[in-house]
């Protein structure tokens, strides 16, 4: 919730209209959700735009993988119709394509780190706007 709030505040500082801000923020959220692993598995994403910038920047990826690790890590599922027992870690790696090199707590730490980065970006945008807006107004009024 903090990340969505930070992202929408960043969008609100850069977009002049309320309706444009809502549309832009929803579009950014939609693109992040599309590349996070909700609809397509990570190996099925196109590598140029969706996999490398969007998949790794999307905070939904870390939330989803942390949720999967919390629910399935260490579980053993009973055998089904005479098949072998299914390990939860195997399910995470093979079926859901979750990155198992780090724990769910690292995913949570990445999310909190993203909150801090978004807040710093918001602060920089606000300070830049405070300094640049009077200069732009002075140029516009001197031209008329």
In which order are the strands of the major sheet placed? 1-2
Shape: elongated
Oligomer: single chain
| Percent range of helical residues | over 70%
**Total discrete domains:** 1
Sequence of secondary-structure elements: HHHHEEHH
Whole-angstrom Rg: 21 Å
Could you report the average pLDDT, rounded to the nearest whole number? Answer: 91
Structural class: mainly alpha
Total beta strands: 2
Question: What is the terminal separation in angstroms?
Answer: 45 Å
For the sheet with most strands, the description reads: 2 strands, antiparallel
- The share of residues in extended strands comes to under 5%
Q: Which parts are unreliable, with pLDDT below 50 for 5 consecutive residues or more?
A: none
Number of helices: 6
Structure report:
This protein has 6 helices and 2 strands; from the N terminus they run H-H-H-H-E-E-H-H. It is elongated, with a radius of gyration of 21 Å. Strand 1 (76-77) and strand 2 (86-87) form a beta hairpin. 72% of the residues lie in helices and 3% in strands. The protein has a two-stranded antiparallel ribbon. By secondary structure, it is mainly alpha-helical. The mean pLDDT is 91. The chain starts with a helix and ends with a helix. The longest helix is centred in the C-terminal third of the chain and has 40 residues, at 104-143. It has one domain. One of its GO terms (molecular function) is ABC-type transporter activity. Residues 2-72 form the ABC-2 type transporter transmembrane domain. It comes from Helianthus annuus.
């Amino acid at each position: 919730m903090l990340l969505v709030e930070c992202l929408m505040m960043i969008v609100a500082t850069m977009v002049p209209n309320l309706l444009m801000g809502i549309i832009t923020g929803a579009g950014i959220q939609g693109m992040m959700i599309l590349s996070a692993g909700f609809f397509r598995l990570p190996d099925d994403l196109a590598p140029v735009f969706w996999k490398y910038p969007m998949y790794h920047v999307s905070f939904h990826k870390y939330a989803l993988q942390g949720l999967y690790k919390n629910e399935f890590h260490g579980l053993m599922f009973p055998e089904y119709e005479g098949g072998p027992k299914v390990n939860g870690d195997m399910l995470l790696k093979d079926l859901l394509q979750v990155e198992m090199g780090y724990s769910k707590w690292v995913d949570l730490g990445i999310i909190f780190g993203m909150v801090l980065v978004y807040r710093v970006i918001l602060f920089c945008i606000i300070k830049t706007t405070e300094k640049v807006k009077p200069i732009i107004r002075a140029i516009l009024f001197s031209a008329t």
